[in-house]
Amino acid sequence: MTAITATTTSPSAPVPAWLDELVEALGAGSVLTDPDVTAAYARDQAMLAESGTPAAVVLPRSTDEVSAVLRIASAHGVPVVPRGAGSGLAGAANAIDGAITLVLTRMDAVLEVSTADRLAVVQPGVVNKALRDAVATDGLFYPPDPSSYDWCTIGGNLANNSGGLCCVKYGVTTDYVLGLEVVLADGRVLRTGRRTVKGVAGYDLARLFVGSEGTLGVITEATLSLRPAPKTPVTLVASFTTTAQTGQVVEAVVTSGLVPSLLEVMDRTCIRAVDDMLKADLDRDAHALLVAQSDAGGQAAVEEMEALAQLCRDAGADLVHVTDDAAEGDLLLTARRMALPALERLGTTLIDDVAVPRSRIAAFLDGCDAIAERCGLVIGVVGHAGDGNMHPTVVFDPTDDDQRTRAFQAFDDVLELGLSLGGTITGEHGEGNLKTDWLEREIGPVSLSVHQAVKAALDPQGLLNPGKMFRSATVSDLAGAASLR
Amino acid sequence: MTAITATTTSPSAPVPAWLDELVEALGAGSVLTDPDVTAAYARDQAMLAESGTPAAVVLPRSTDEVSAVLRIASAHGVPVVPRGAGSGLAGAANAIDGAITLVLTRMDAVLEVSTADRLAVVQPGVVNKALRDAVATDGLFYPPDPSSYDWCTIGGNLANNSGGLCCVKYGVTTDYVLGLEVVLADGRVLRTGRRTVKGVAGYDLARLFVGSEGTLGVITEATLSLRPAPKTPVTLVASFTTTAQTGQVVEAVVTSGLVPSLLEVMDRTCIRAVDDMLKADLDRDAHALLVAQSDAGGQAAVEEMEALAQLCRDAGADLVHVTDDAAEGDLLLTARRMALPALERLGTTLIDDVAVPRSRIAAFLDGCDAIAERCGLVIGVVGHAGDGNMHPTVVFDPTDDDQRTRAFQAFDDVLELGLSLGGTITGEHGEGNLKTDWLEREIGPVSLSVHQAVKAALDPQGLLNPGKMFRSATVSDLAGAASLR
Q1: What's the confidence (pLDDT) of residue B4?
Q2: Given this model, what pLDDT does residue B280 score?
Q3: Which of A257, A467, B165, B272 is exposed most, by the fewest CB atoms within 10 A?
Q4: What is the pLDDT of residue A298?
Q5: Within chain A, which residue ranges are assigned CATH 3.40.462.10?
Q6: Which has more pLDDT, B126 or B243?
Q7: A403 or B472: which carries more pLDDT confidence?
Q8: Are strands A56-58 and A100-103 parallel, antiparallel or unpaired?
Q9: Could you give the 3-state DSSP secondary structure of residue B22?
Q10: B385: pLDDT strictly greater than 90
Q11: Range B276-304 average pLDDT
């Protein structure tokens, strides 16, 4: 799947010159080549995505060192795979044979938290939760909260434009990016964006790098806007006879103008898997559970959740419960966050990541039921119902060839269903090397050629994470795009 | 200032072949060449920015017609200046000698308003206010509200990433862009983005086009997210002995975690100019006026404004008044919106557009006072205090050469001051052809070369609004950027 591979090093192979240069620039302790050691950096959490063997894993400690790595790589034509903690779910961080894997986890400083400007300046290796904790002491809040928030890094969040449970009210990573420092393919250091709330100087390059999965540059610093700490939430839980009813509730939320700070769904498969894992005393007989919160504060939050409770009853909820008990709310959120790990205990999982317009959620959930029935496999449905970003997750036994075939078919059928409803093949996980074909299908040939033109402008040698997101341009692509150039 | 000019047509000159092709494609009624008629489309509201004479003004009615215009223009190497109503304040829409001015005002349909998905699909010629009115009937809200909202078009708002009075709580235009249809330089039609709330498929090309001032493509359709209609606001007005005190209040708002829906400032020059124009019974003796609103609803809004009132008193306000009277609030807002038109009655104006970090607003306002004193001219200060985006406006007599020189010096001094405080040379007006040199100064050589590389990737002939935002790459630039390519 990768378009470019460099020479693979093996214990017997001669050491390439660029490896000496890396050691010279960063020190031997920052350049790992022992295959037993580098294997730990070979892949992310997309267990079924392709992965190669890195020639070297480098762990820079500064922007200057990242710059040195990219200067050396570009001089020698060696591909580079940037990565953080490796919590990704699409193989974007997966190693490429013979390439350098550039690990940013040692650059983990929170450089500044400004209450007066309500922003933070961080290095890419800062763990999401570490940033959240660092700003919370000043009464501030960094909203984007992917499920892996306690170990994923901000650099990976930026590269994937990560979402999370907060998106329904607070948006995604890109909505918090003010400025970036990026090392370009040739090692030059770009500073783009700003420290101000507003600013339109030049192109919005910062948001071009956000979500580009390491294919355009390596983010070495980010200036992120923060919000005031949210108020203690009021939590609602409601159970339903069908998952599709939860879609109806979301539509009603949108048309009624409610803005909950969280609105999540789990189906019975997930409920039971989580309950088995956490012994959380969940309602194991429910077919679907909706968990919502309002952080509007005090009486406003209670009113918002009471209004939602009525929408749930109108949609035929079996049970609706509203609580301002923070501990109970936390428990429900933990249960929701544990849905994917709990499903993974049932078998190998293929996690889909489709976002559909909110008016089509019920249709999408019905469609997922039909796909599960057709393929004869369990599909656990969990997702960010409030923003239409659902994660139907196929559970199967990978040692059973027939199940494996049906699982991949079901995975594709879910993507197909999402596109047919006006949705997207990825709401927050990205393409990595898992959905490159699907991306081309979603965006079409004109957009693909624009992607390739932008990529070629910023990474003319095609060395940055090649083969991720979309195919590199081939000779015939370039001929086809001749009219663009 | 423009890098490319095509053959200028004059009544006696032979009609260029491309003009025949335009008439063939769009019909004679959509292709204007009479200089007396085309002059009306020659410039925007930046009265002192350079402007040329268009060879033709074309007014397409559809994406297909825009595509035809760009195919013809690229085939013949004719530059194209896209524009909407011409409310811009930096000359981005100003005509280029011999170029085609492409006016999008006839494409003025609101194609869809979806309450279920809380979005609207619009053509670029829709007037901002027309969109606001169209969605208000469904209880929805399109926040970005530049001061010219009753005549500026959404296409221009997108091209400039316009802000307005709402930004302090609701952000700017780009925060509401889900998807775009863009005609590329060669006439191909790109659809990018989505209808879903979330989505990370491919690069964020939509936000690359937003704010690119027509230099990368022509936006022909936009899918915009909407919000629930805000609640009736509670309004606060406070008067101060110095403008800088208002900056202190803003800092206190940020650190205290208040999120007003509006927080605007006017100095005495503006107060008196507006009062002269509107007879609005403003406090003519105040040195600075802060106008704020909360749309948090009911008691929450009252509490938010009472908290702000206390911050104003703490900063030494002479007078603080909170009202839930909607008419009184509207009057104060109208007064604020009329500040620039009112200043224009005093003389020719040079409107600056600096955004500074909110912690530096007081220092910025003090600095503006010093500049006014140094240059011996009136500088009326008006601005979006809450987000640090200020519009110090130099008033002068353009027939007085000395005043003119001092006015331009003051304009530059304000930009210099903004940069020295960590700010940006443009918070919302853009560069147009007025601030190309300043943009280069702000972003630096590495970012400039990335801008030029992106521009070259999307517009290899350099025909789209050449010379706007930044200099096109020259041969020596390209040699200097050889390492990037």
Answers
A1: 43
A2: 84
A3: A257
A4: 87
A5: 234-420
A6: B126
A7: A403
A8: parallel
A9: helix
A10: yes
A11: 92
- B110-228 domain in CATH 3.10.20.740? no
**φ/ψ of residue A134, rounded to 5:** -65, -35
Burial of B353 (0-12, 13-18, 19+ CB in 10 A): buried
Which of B200, B259, B446 faces A190 most closely, judged by CB atoms?
A: B446
Mean pLDDT of the B344-357 span: 95
How many CA within 13 A on the CB side of residue A178? 24
CA dihedral B390, B1, B219, B443 (to 10 degrees): -50
For CATH 3.30.43.10, the residue range(s) in chain A are 17-103
Of B197, B202, B422, the CB nearest to A195: B422
Q: How many cross-chain Cβ pairs, A to B, lie less than 8 Å apart?
A: 278
Q: Which residues of A touch B201 (CB under 8 A)?
A: 424-426, 431, 439, 442-443
Reply yes or no on whether the pLDDT at B437 is more than 50: yes
Does A485 sit within 8 Å of B460, measured CB to CB?
yes
Question: What's the average model confidence in pLDDT over B241-246?
Answer: 91
pLDDT score, position A14? 67
Answer whether A198 sits within 8 Å of B451, measured CB to CB. Answer: no
Q: Which residue has the tokens 């009062």?
A: B275
pLDDT at B485 over 70: no
Select from A93, A77, A73 the least CA-distant residue to A85: A93
What residues in B contact A192, CB-CB < 8 Å? 443, 447, 450
pLDDT band at B47 (very low <50, low <70, confident <90, very high): confident
**pLDDT recorded at residue B480:** 45
Q: What is the structure's pLDDT at B298?
A: 87
Mean pLDDT, residues B237-253 taken together: 93
d(CA A195, CA A198): 9
pLDDT at site A78: 97
pLDDT of residue A15: 78
Task: Work out whether strand B227-228 and strand B140-141 pair parallel, antiparallel, or are unpaired.
Answer: antiparallel
Q: Is A464 helix (H, G, I), strand (E, B) or coil?
A: strand
| Reported confidence tier of residue B3, pLDDT bands at 50, 70, 90 | very low
CB B197 within 8 A of CB B182: no
Cβ–Cβ below 8 Å for A389 and B196? yes
* CB of A49 closer than 8 Å to CB of A433: yes
B388 vs A198: CB contact, 8 Å cut-off?
A: yes
Instruction: Give start-end residues of each CATH 3.30.465.10 domain in chain B.
Output: 110-228
Q: How far apart are CA B180 and CA A374, in angstroms?
A: 36
Q: For the purposes of burial, counting CB atoms within 10 Å of the CB of A331, is it exposed (0-12), middle (13-18) or buried (19 or more)?
A: middle
Question: Residues A224-259, buried b or exposed e (16+ Cβ, 10 A)?
Answer: bbbbbebeebbbbbbbbebbbbbbbbbbbbbbeebb
- Tell me, what's the pLDDT at B12? 53
Contacts of A203 in chain B (CB under 8 A): 208, 211-212, 216, 451, 454, 469
Alpha helices by DSSP H, listed for B83-147, are: 128-136
Centre a 10 Å sphere on the Cβ of residue A129 and count the other Cβ atoms it contains.
15
3-state secondary structure of B257: coil
Assess contact for B123 and B31: CB atoms under 8 A.
Answer: no
Kindly give, in sequence order, each residue whose CB lies less than 8 Å from that of residue A457, ignoring residues fewer than 6 positions away: B453, B454, B456, B457, B485
The token duo for B86 is: 């011409």
Write down the pTM of the prediction. 0.95
Which residues of chain A are modeled with pLDDT < 70? 1-14, 473-485
Residue B14 has pLDDT above 60, yes or no: yes
CATH topology of domain B17-103: 3.30.43
Query: Which CATH code, of 3.40.50.300, 3.60.21.10, 3.30.70.260, 3.40.462.10, is assigned to A234-420?
Result: 3.40.462.10
Degrees (nearest 5) of the Cα angle B298, B299, B300? 95
Give the mean model confidence (pLDDT) for residues B17-36. Answer: 97
The enclosing H or E element of B155 equals helix B154-160
